[in-house]
Amino acid sequence: RKVLTMRIVMVGAGYVGLVSGTCLADFGHEVVCVDKEEEKIAKLRLGAVPIYEPGLGELLLANQASGRLSFSTSLKDAVEGADAVFIAVGTPSLAEVGSADMRYVYDAARAIAEVIEGFTVVVIKSTVPVGSGDEVEKILAARLPKDRFAVVSNPEFLREGAAIEDFKHPDRVIVGVEDDRGRSVMHAIYRPIERNAGPILYTTRRSAEMIKYAANVFLAMKVTFINEIADLCEQVDADVLDVSRGIGLDDRIGAKFLNPGPGFGGSCFPKDTLALTKLAIEAKAPIRLVETLVDVNEKRKIAMARKIERACGGSVAGKRIAVLGLTYKPKTDDMRDAPSLVIVPELQAAGAHIVAYDPEGVKAARALLSGVEFADNAYACLAGADAAVVITEWDEFRALDLQKVKAALGKPVVIDLRNIYPIKTMRALGFRYVCVGRGL
Ligand code: UGA
């Protein structure tokens, strides 16, 4: 099937920009990723990927070699002849306010307005509050006649650790577009996945912006719900794993995102739940359900530290606590809003000495956690510790030899905040094993 090649510019070579740019090149399009950071672009030109994402390195190299994917610091050079310019820059939470900081998106829009030539579609991929597309349109209209551009909202639904698969085989692609020319360019861009993925859903721009927040917040709500059900299970001697399975088999509920843990983290859920509450308050339609879940999730991380103390006989003062896993989830080196960033300092404040190991997160963790001793591998981390705490469910922790774990630990205490070990085996081996929501 013939692919109509589009010329695409990706502004922002961060996580979303790199994954999206690389996958679009792999679809057969010509893609230039642009970023202001010269050092980052220089490294990317040599094929060095600055983030950890399974499969990204290989895909990037292959598309670079084919000439479809390139990197530049010059937006002006890159946009020459481009059909679409994607904005994939960050929208961090504004300190103390909580709403999304739109500075980088609007800066990018102004820079784009300066340099685009023929008709160009400006696609917003960054997660932005409802109405941001209108603002970007105003910025462009201040410099350009209206028939020279179209502004489209095309939110991303990539999970870190599975981003390539998510981009290539999405459940759906959301395109918020207000005019036919914008729509036909987006159709050409996503045509290669039409057959082997979910539908492309065309909506208004504002609806597309809302879909992104509503989707993430719904998932965060599912996680928070099962976390609270887990706490209740502990009190009433029920097993949350059975409860998850039992409710998840109902199609209306669905089995995914029902694994209890130490609270959600990462670069999206914490930021997006907060941003939606602000947006709703400003729109005079406050969503109390979401306000509550933000609060519940914050408190949960602190509650996890107290749970660890209880499992250690009431206090961790003077104890050596081995922490397995620091990143907010496995298969990423991302430490943003990771529960470990609250749990570890709480334990330190209670007098614990923390020794930690993470397969990918140590580099980022060193800058964010002080007074922590970092081990080179899991067994070294466990050696002589008074208790082990699993915060992130990396596969290599599931695969640990539990006899060796017991032999390594000073005291056979395991607090498993991700339920990765079988209760019966742990108890048969003589561990004091504390997990989440399994009050059996
Ligand atoms: C999330 C969404 O899943 C993506 O669809 C979305 O595109 C992305 O945000 C984004 O807005 O860019 P991500 O942050 O990579 O992706 O991570 P998730 O896999 O969604 O996990 C988020 C948090 O929830 C993690 O801390 C994870 O440990 C936790 N979680 C998830 C649970 O505790 N239990 C679960 O059952 C599922």
From TrEMBL:
Gene Ontology MF terms: NAD binding; UDP-glucose 6-dehydrogenase activity
Entry EC no(s): 1.1.1.22
Catalytic activity of the protein: UDP-alpha-D-glucose + 2 NAD(+) + H2O = UDP-alpha-D-glucuronate + 2 NADH + 3 H(+)
UniProt keyword list: NAD, Oxidoreductase
Membrane-crossing residue ranges in chain numbering: none
Catalytic class of the enzyme: oxidoreductase
Signal sequence, start to end: none
Domain of life, per lineage: Bacteria
Gene Ontology biological process terms from the UniProt entry: polysaccharide biosynthetic process; UDP-glucuronate biosynthetic process
Listed Pfam families: UDPG_MGDP_dh, UDPG_MGDP_dh_C, UDPG_MGDP_dh_N
Pathway as given in its UniProt record: Nucleotide-sugar biosynthesis; UDP-alpha-D-glucuronate biosynthesis; UDP-alpha-D-glucuronate from UDP-alpha-D-glucose: step 1/1
Keyword Oxidoreductase: yes
Catalytic site positions: 268 (nucleophile)
Binding site for substrate: 157-160, 212, 257-261, 265, 329
Boundaries of every UDP-glucose/GDP-mannose dehydrogenase C-terminal domain copy: 322-423
Binding site for NAD(+): 35, 40, 91, 127, 160, 271, 336
Gene3D superfamilies found in the cross-reference section: Cytochrome c1, transmembrane anchor, C-terminal (1.20.5.100), NAD(P)-binding Rossmann-like Domain (3.40.50.720)
SUPFAM superfamilies: 6-phosphogluconate dehydrogenase C-terminal domain-like, NAD(P)-binding Rossmann-fold domains, UDP-glucose/GDP-mannose dehydrogenase C-terminal domain
Recorded family membership: Belongs to the UDP-glucose/GDP-mannose dehydrogenase family.
Name listed for the protein in its UniProt record: UDP-glucose 6-dehydrogenase
Protein species of origin: Roseiarcus fermentans
